[in-house]
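== Sequence and structure of one protein ==
=== Format: two labelled lines per protein ===
==== Data for this protein ====
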Amino acid sequence: MSGRFLDMDRRQWLVLFAAWLGWGFDVFDGLLFNYVAPACVPTLLGLELGTPEAKSATLWWGGALTSLLLVGWAIGGIIFGRVADRIGRKRTLMLTMALYSIGTAACAFAPNIWVLAVCRLVASLGIGGEWAAGASMVAEVVPEKRRVEAGALLYTSAPAGLFLASFVNWQIAGVAFASDPETSWRYVFLCGLAPSFVAFAVRFMIDEPERWKAAGPAVDVGLADLFTPAMRRATFSGLSMALVCLVMWWSCNAFIPTIAAGLAQVEASAKGLDKLATTELIESFKATSTNLFNLGGLIGTLLTVPAAKYLGRRAMFGVYFVASAAAIYGAFGLDVPPSWRLSMYFPIGLTVFGVFGSFTYDLPELYPTRLRATGAGFCYNAGRVIAAAGPFLVGSIASRGADALQAATSVLVLVAVVPLLGVLLLPWVIETKGRALED
């Protein structure tokens, strides 16, 4: 046993740290809009904040722009996955981080909703592309026996990015510019520039992986290579697992504000709270549910390490899928008090969010070096096109007002079936436990 922590030297830890920052800021930039939408959308449409018209417009445009983000995310993931195989992991990591940071910061200067949409699309291309480059780079640099641990550690940056987005929004929109909501959202978007400085630092911190250098630029490969007889099963294995997890995650996460607000209103009604106290309770429930979901996701991500190493990848997915179905049904199918239902976001995060920690090592293991980023990027992101329908559904349900809670819980109970469908796909999943990374 080496004296180095997890048998990795300084160079390998720098690579992991660079990719960790890239993915964390990726999530941070991607979800800033969720926090500022109630002020951003009405301001750009010339509507008075807090009016029924402003709330309705926020729901519709929030759903539309989130769907646009997911479509752009999918396109960027597929395009830049191929780019990473052609020009290198480090260069692609720098390029995508610069792209999504500039796109996000440009939102701060949007004069209307259409310019905001264009800026969000630009940012989404970089957001989707960063993951494949970072995950491939980490898989190729760390020791074979530590690939699982490194991959799980890489994904812990996702809940960290969510926590950071929530914190930044609160410090700027909730404290520094609380009295000026029409302007505060612009300063929140400006924080999206932070990743560009990290991208610049990456140039000096790390080198291209030796595996990629040895294989050489993959100038003669494309998406069609993922569906050749030799690669077809690997692509089905990765894409099917990612699709199941994406549908679960976006369904549960997208409904958090609607569920939390509805539960708070039920609680406030039972306690006879006035309008101000009800509003405060709603914000408290939103923060609590989000934090429980993120905390569960962080722990669940780390738990994929022992699950993958001792049970194997296929069995690990099976455990997480069964547990996800139980957590989703328990939260939304059982008749429990509002506070109990709220607390169920922790086990949902533990399972639905946590399982994503496996993709940072499972997907790169399915492909040889010349196809690694292309394949991982396609499998991880293609399903977002289907998931993009979710935000529109959320907007439609949330617009029902008093009936939003009942409508949302009815939909989420059905989502519990999705991971069970994933269990049925497990016989076709490729088991990569103990398999060396293919050159």
Q: What stands out?
A: The mean pLDDT is 87.
